[in-house]
Amino acid sequence: MLTYKPRVVLTTFLALFMLSVSDINAQRRKKKKEKDSKAKTEMPKKKEKPEKTIADLTKKSAKIEGLFTIYQDSVSGDVKLLVKKDQLNKDFIYFSQIADGVTEANAFRGSYRGSTVFHINKHFNKIEFVAPNTSFYFDENNAISRSAEANTSDALIESSKILASDDEKGEYLIDANDLFLSETLTRVKQPSFPGGSPFAFKLGRFDKKKSKINNIKNYPENTNIKTEYVFNNPTILGGGSRAIKDGRYVSIKVFHTFMNIPEDGYEVRFDDPRVGFFTTQVNDMTSTETINYRDLVHRWRLVKKDPTAAVSEPVTPITWWIENSTPLEWRQTITEGVLAWNEAFEKAGFKNAMVVKVQPDDADWDAGDVRYNVLRWTSSPNPPFGGYGPSFVNPRTGEILGADIMLEYVHFTNRVKLDRIISSVSSFENEEETMKHAFLNQDNHLFCSAGHLMHENTMFGKTVLAATGASDMEMEGMKKEAMKSLIMHEVGHTLGLNHNMKASQLFSPEELANPELIRGKCLTGSVMDYAGINLTLDRTKQGQYYDMAVGPYDIWAIQFGYTPFTNKTEMDALLAQSTKPELIFGNDADDMRSPGKAIDPRVMTGDLSNDQIGYSIDRFKLVNNMMRKLKSSMAKTGESYEELRNAYYVLNGQSARAGDVISRFIGGVYVDRAMQGQEGATQPYTPVSYADQKRAMNALKTYIFAPNAFKAPSDLYAYLARQRRGYNFFGGPEDPKIHAQVLGYQTRVLNHILHPNTLQRISDSELYGNKYKLSEFMTELNDAIFKADIYGSVNSFRQNLQMQYTKMLLSMVDGKSKNRFTNASKAMALYNLNKIKTWVGNGTGDVMTKAHKAQLKTLITNTLKEVK
């Protein structure tokens, strides 16, 4: 009998069972697969969804027709833009401006962001917005024009997927949110600059979720969209001023405008360096000339109704609207300021070229609408300007398409922005700041400080008039003169004119003190200057304070820009007049407002008369006279001393500006931009005469560096008190920093006359006529700062000055910037330091003086040990 082991039997059984189960499962899978396959074969095919049409995608949207049809979703507010086939490959103009913002972000109401040409391309299933590079010109008749696109870059601004199209109508629909709810079209957030303070205000990250479109207005010739950009910055150090509710969340409102390119028929006018218009710079890449500039003058399209008439009304005048927010008491003065330019246009052949209207209180259009040129008013917490007159143009032609003028109410009140005045008179921007401002204001027609300077001038005028017992009527008359002058200045910008900082040379000081001679005239060659206020030292000879008409240069410039010349000979004959004294010109690039900048002392801000040194000396004397009367004239029972404090700063500010003006004559070189062979032309560079440089040095010695410079009555300082407001003094003492203030005024002069550019120019200009040698200048400067009190006691103001000056000399021979100075400059600095070391070694004077001299000697000795 056979016996089986139970374990073997069980194992065999399990193996057979598993094979059987596996086989069964395989058969089941096969049957299921066959069944699924059969079912799949028998299942009807799903119908493909039809592509959505434009109508489908916009059925819940409001249709806003115009140049570009806009659809805005009635629920989400999202926008879509309709592009028509006939709009492809066609030029349009994009323009933007700030509707509302904050000055800390350099984005404030009315500020223009520039204009650019763009066209729209269709690339497969996308719509592209492209801004072509318009900086170069190629003559189509020149074979080299075939390489016009070589090594230049256009800007592909946006590429949007086509959401739907209508081939029959030739229409394409795209999502426009990315176009308008981003910084794609215009940059609002400024770049961060190296070395910036971590406490400086900065916009945060753009928040697309919070940003929105506030308003859409559409017209046949332009599409206008108002957006609100929101920037989030959860970790801020500098939250800005009280104008900003919460620095973490800042809103900037922006107007975007798409416009049709204007019709043909506009005649371009090319720039000439002898006259100052804003331009669009273009290089002629097919020219063989040494200079290939083809710069386009910015000007309005003016066409005579009667081309045969010497003077005719234009077909379309330049029309200005006074915004309905304008104070009623200023409207007549503003109108006069605008219409004053008609005198210039009549000389160019146009009658009533300028027209002024008032915006009705019930107007249905916004002042930001580009179809209107508007004189607008704001009353900002932190005014960025007093007046501001930007325009925008067709970049292909230079034709001005629109303009506005912004006016700040605070600049026509008695309020003084002390921090602005103190900073403007106590120091200059350094070179890094200058470069920053140059970067941010590359389009200089978008930047103007005339209103700031005029406000300081007017506050000075009010102080003088108050100190001399002037009537309210006289005060009001001066304010109206200031307003009219500012309006003429800003309107000039909107006509295409840039600044003329050289124009203040028109009258002599004696003529400016002749009320009958100057009545109703422009006190300078041009209202486009930043001139000082005309306040006479002899108060019995006071005439008008500001320009009351456009100047001879203004008339001549408008003739150049707007006269419909019949031939080039006529234009050349007009330009040949540039050598006349009343027509001299120098713009912001030529002015000497910052240390070491430019070379011609006639191109300066805050000056007046053809004897700037003499007029500035009179300004010092006038300030000193008024300082003695200040306390009594500003005494008002029941009021705080805030106005007295303000007046003190205003007076000292005028002295500081006078010092600036005088200092520019040292090492100065007069520039003549006349063409070769032009009648009345001189050599291009002529150094300032020896006599005038010596005169300037003596004036600085007396009014800037002398022991009694900037001296005020001793009983005044204790009353320079601010009015308390809450806890605003928290963290810092409120007392006036008199020593620091005076040293600031003196340092700003030293910053220029000891600037490496100035010192180098003194040496270089000896080669073409300068007689005031570097050795003589630096010896006289050394003497001016030390000799008057070297053997006696040195007062605290002079101690500060001597220490500052000595440190500047030491930095020339052993500082970080020593390599910027010429060998001759460093040699004279070393020579003067050794002289000072000898002088201060005499040990004379009171205890504080002895300590001061010992400190100077130690400082010089230790530093010179390191000089190699």
Which features would summarize this protein structure in a list?
868 residues; alpha+beta; 2 domains; 34% helix; globular
In short:
Residues 34-52 have a biased composition (Basic and acidic residues). By secondary structure, this protein is an alpha+beta fold.
Count the DSSP helices.
Answer: 22
Main sheet properties: 12 strands, antiparallel
Dominant shape:
globular
The structure class reads alpha+beta
End-to-end gap: 122 Å
> Which residue ranges are poorly predicted, with pLDDT under 50 across at least 5 consecutive positions?
419-442
List how many beta strands DSSP finds: 24
What fraction of residues sit in β-strands?
A: 15-25%
Helix content: 25-40%
Mean pLDDT: 90
Using only C-alpha atoms, the radius of gyration works out to 36 Å
User: What is the total number of structural domains?
Assistant: 2
Structure description:
With 868 residues, the protein is an alpha+beta fold. It has two domains: 60-192 and 199-260, no CATH class; 318-772, no CATH class. Helices cover 34% and strands 16% of the residues. It contains 22 helices and 24 strands. Strands 1, 2, 3, 4, 5, 6, 8, 9, 10, 11, 12 and 13 form a twelve-stranded antiparallel beta sheet that branches. Strand 21 (391-393) and strand 22 (400-408) form a beta hairpin.
List the helices and strands and how they pair.
Elements: H1 6-42, H2 54-58, E1 61-64, E2 69-73, E3 79-84, E4 91-100, E5 112-123, E6 126-131, E7 136-137, E8 155-166, E9 171-175, H3 177-180, E10 205-206, E11 212-218, E12 222-232, E13 249-260, E14 279-280, E15 283-284, E16 296-297, E17 318-322, H4 331-339, H5 342-347, E18 354-358, E19 373-378, E20 387-388, E21 391-393, E22 400-408, H6 418-426, H7 431-440, H8 450-467, H9 472-494, H10 509-512, H11 515-518, H12 552-562, H13 568-575, H14 612-633, H15 642-663, E23 669-671, E24 685-687, H16 690-703, H17 738-753, H18 756-765, H19 774-786, H20 796-814, H21 823-839, H22 847-864
Parallel strand pairs: 7-15, 17-18, 17-19, 19-22
Antiparallel strand pairs: 1-2, 2-3, 3-9, 4-5, 4-13, 5-6, 6-8, 8-9, 10-12, 11-12, 12-13, 14-16, 20-22, 21-22, 23-24
Domain EcxA zinc-binding: 473-789
Region (Disordered): 29-52
Pfam family, one: DUF5117
